[in-house]
UniProtKB/TrEMBL annotation:
Family matches, as Pfam families: Aldo_ket_red
Gene Ontology molecular function terms on file: L-galactose dehydrogenase activity
Record-linked CDD domains: AKR_galDH
Membrane-spanning segments: none
Originating species: Gemmata massiliana
GO cellular component, one term: cytosol
Signal sequence region: none
SUPFAM superfamilies for the chain: NAD(P)-linked oxidoreductase
Protein name (Swiss-Prot/TrEMBL): NADP-dependent oxidoreductase domain-containing protein
Residue ranges annotated for the NADP-dependent oxidoreductase domain, each copy included: 16-292
InterPro entries: AKR, LGALDH-like, NAD(P)_OxRdtase_dom_sf, NADP_OxRdtase_dom
Domain of life, per lineage: Bacteria
Length: 310
């Protein structure tokens, strides 16, 4: 396993991080045993960063992870959790709500602190000034109290995430769906700003919310139909060559050297093993070139998310 520095935190994190959304049944039912086996196998393979959130399964992901990290495994990993988002359409960025959310997360995770604490999906806030002032202030206070070693924010729109690191003294951020086969704006538009400020960056959703899979995205995917259709054609091309676009997509994302850690939401050991294989298997360069051509019409295409205009 390769490790990279996470900004100025002093943490060296595995290039492959374990995302916990699937632990919370976000993509179908998964058992406690499957999660335990997956987390244990990930740690044994050298994965040392696990990301979860109060939102994932309304706490189920954190509960599963808390149990999985018992028996001495908690000390082996960097745990990142996220507050302020409680359900698909329920958010609370108030200091009181944030603190209450974090206290619940720590209880479910069976720990007295997390290494990284983020305000989750800030694009859904109705007042970004409030987030940059009031929400940020409570994150700072929780850090001072030792409930989090490092703090940050996550969101989809890169311009908003850029504002967050310019306005607040953040340690870590999560960007999603901007470091993948058809969108590399995370590298071109964001990383220079983050690196100048010493902010650690995690790349989430390297398969673009399911677009870069044979199954396609969930029914609630907010992007335009042409993005879905173009990605479907790319997946079809891969299948025709005896390949899987999700594997190629993981290979591509994990090879982005500028990004400290890419998060993938495997919930079963078999899924984790595919991601681990993507770390070392040689890329089919001819296939990659052809897939890139198919994806060219939607290159760096984004969609509206939350209350951010654009």
């Amino acid at each position: 396993m390769e490790y990279r520095p996470l900004g100025k935190t002093g943490l060296n994190v595995s290039v492959l991080g374990q995302g916990g959304a699937a632990f919370g049944q976000q993509y179908g039912a998964v058992s406690d045993r499957e999660v335990l086996d997956c987390v244990h196998a990930a740690i044994d393979a050298g994965v040392n960063l696990i990301d979860t959130a109060a939102y994932y399964g309304k706490g189920t992901s954190e509960e599963f992870l808390g149990r999985a990290l018992e028996g001495g495994r908690r000390e082996k990993v960097v745990v990142c959790t996220k507050a302020c988002r409680l359900d698909r359409a329920v958010f609370d960025f108030t200091p009181e709500g944030t603190r209450k959310c974090v206290e619940g997360s720590l209880k479910r995770l069976r720990t007295d602190h997390v290494e990284i604490l983020l305000a989750h999906d800030i694009e859904f806030a109705t007042d970004y000034e409030y987030v940059f002032n009031e929400t940020y202030a409570v994150l700072q206070q929780l850090k001072k109290e030792g409930k989090a070693r490092f703090i940050g924010m996550s969101c989809y729109p890169l311009p908003l995430l850029k504002q967050a690191i310019e306005r607040c003294d953040l340690d870590v951020v999560i960007s999603y769906a901007h470091g993948n086969l058809f969108n590399t704006q995370l590298l071109s538009d964001f990383m220079p700003v983050a690196e100048a400020r010493g902010v650690g960056v995690m790349n989430a959703s390297p398969l673009a919310m399911g677009l870069l899979t044979n199954q396609g995205p969930q029914s609630w995917f907010p992007g335009p139909p042409e993005v879905i259709e173009t990605c479907r054609k790319a997946a079809e091309l891969c299948r025709g060559r005896g390949a899987d676009i999700s594997f190629l997509g993981m290979q591509f994302a994990l090879a982005l050297k500028q990004i400290p850690c890419t998060l993938s939401g495997a919930a079963r050991k078999s899924e984790l093993e595919v991601n681990l294989k993507a770390l070392t298997a040689p890329v089919d360069e001819a296939l990659l070139a052809d897939v890139m051509k198919v994806l060219d019409p939607i290159r760096n295409r984004t969609w509206k998310c939350g209350n951010w205009p654009g």
